[in-house]
């Protein structure tokens, strides 16, 4: 299985203006650095959670159809297509007789009732699934994820360099923990 992000995201869960307020930065001298740290924070949170915070498009490849296709990024907004290389070698052909579950995490794709996956040519990456994952907009991203980003941003802004990554505050990880109870 190979996962490739092909586009996005176009925006961040927290704005540069909000981060500058948070850090009490009044000038514009450090705007580029703030933008870079915001992106780094989002990417790190996404890496830890294995979730997509802002919408992005992905391609997922398999050498053949698995019993069930599990989409490794959540939340999945839509499945654009499921394509495969047929045994006759024809280019990617869309498989439309599928059943999708976008509610579960991970989201799932199976053949529809009374259908089965078609045979594929025995080549690498014979199956390609395109999908869109991520929250609908910044307001939909859970606040605890955005707060974790702000902790990361604050820490990295004031602890620049390699040592910053080694000393992230425990609260950052606590906000991302599945064990965090939200009342």
What can you tell me about this protein's structure?
With about 180 residues, the protein is α+β, with helices and mostly antiparallel strands. It folds into two domains: about 1-55 and about 140-175, no CATH class; about 55-135, no CATH class. Helices cover about 30% and strands about 25% of the residues. The chain has five helices and eight strands, in the order E-H-H-E-E-E-E-E-E-E-H-H-H. Strands 1-2-8-4-5 form a five-stranded antiparallel beta sheet, with no helix packed on it. Strands 3-7-6 form a three-stranded antiparallel beta sheet, with no helix packed on it. Strand 6 and strand 7 form a beta hairpin. Helix 2 (about 30-50) packs across helix 3 and helix 3 packs antiparallel against helix 5 (about 170-175). It is elongated and about 60 Å long.
Keywords:
183 residues; 5-stranded antiparallel beta sheet; 5 helices; 2 domains; 3-stranded antiparallel beta sheet; alpha+beta; single chain
Radius of gyration: 20 Å
**How many DSSP helices?**
5
Q: Give helix % range.
A: 25-40%
| Main sheet strand line-up | 1-2-8-4-5
Mean of residue pLDDT values: 92
SSE string: EHHEEEEEEEHHH
| Percentage of β-strand residues | 15-25%
Gap from first CA to last CA: 37 Å
Number of domains: 2
Q: Runs with pLDDT <50, length 5+?
A: none
